[in-house]
Amino acid sequence: MNTFFNILIDGLAYGMVLFVIAVGLSVTLGLMRFVNLSHGAFAMVGGYGAALLTREAGWNFWLAVPAAVLVTGFLGAALEALVLRHLYRRKELDQVLFTIGLSFVLIAATNALAGPQVQLITLPASLSGSVDLGFRTLPAQRLLVIGVGLMVALTAAWTVTRTRFGVWLRAAVDHSGTASALGIPIRTVQCASFAAGAALAGLGGILGAELMPLEPYYALKYLVLVLVVVAVGGMGSIAGSLAAAVLLGVIETASKYLASEWGSLFFFLAMATLLAWRPNGLLKR
Fold first, then answer.
1. Residue 253 near residue 10 (C-beta atoms within 8 A)
2. Which residues are CB-neighbours of 244 under 8 A, at least 6 positions away?
3. How far is 24 from 106, CA to CA, in rounded Å?
4. Containing domain of residue 69, as a range?
5. Distances from the Cα of 102 to the Cαs of 1, 41, 220, 248, in angstroms?
6. Radius of gyration (C-alpha) of the chain in whole angstroms
């Protein structure tokens, strides 16, 4: 029974990391209809930023995290405004080639500036300890990951479905010409959406540094996992991405506990099974 609860808790924490990174890509792919394969690079930038600020600059963790997230969001906004907006009406292959090339550029820059070693984020005393759950002790940092993941899910769902900005975003995607004629600032909506997705990826890179180590090839190493979450959850479905991330996170964790020699085989078998069962996404009709 203890093993079951351990798998459940660790799988939930891992799934929340995948979700926080993947939710921005889900919105970009599903609502903006832009294939952004540089999304993993934004997660890496956020993680590296927090690591350098806490370790090299001596910043407090609670100041370094929002600063790194804001810098990542600003980088996403700058790239969208200067370059990526020109690719919206281009073929998907053009988007794929450019964004994967952007990932390689960021990987090379990261390797040159910070070196090939794994980057560690210095945690405050409140997150360095453990919390006794009765059946096991859990690092306090993982409880933060779970809590932040739930907050991101609720905030993202509320923003897309209940706010004026969410209405603008859906209108801009469905019929940009009519939306523009009605006075909706299309370019502002597109840039803000992309920046928010990049910032969330950066936040996920910070929160998941313990489970998904920060190193130069992070951008490509974990991109496949994020794409799987988006595909299984359904593009543009925040609830579907959350369900897929948690389910796949628990399956991946269970395989490591019970059959570690098989690596991630069960993760991809689960992906194939779920896509065969629900090809449009777990919660999509």
1. yes
2. 228, 229, 230, 232, 233, 234, 274, 281, 282
3. 19
4. 17-121+138-215
5. 46, 8, 11, 28
6. 19
Check: CB of residue 205 under 8 Å from CB of residue 46: yes
Closest CA to 168 of 195, 187, 194, 196: 187
Domain count, the chain: 1
pLDDT 10s digits, 36-94:
999 999 999 999 999 999 988 889 999 999 999 999 999 999 999 999 888 988 888 99
Residue with tokens 């059946």: 135
Residue 119 has what DSSP assignment? B
H/E element, 130: strand 130-132
Q: Is residue 117 one of the residues assigned to a domain?
A: yes
Ranges of beta strands (E only) in the chain are: 130-132, 137-139
Strand partners, 119: 214
Q: Is residue 146, in this structure, part of any structural domain at all?
A: yes
Share the mean pLDDT of the chain.
89
In a domain, 79, yes or no: yes
Examine residue 267 and state whether it is found in any structural domain, yes or no.
no
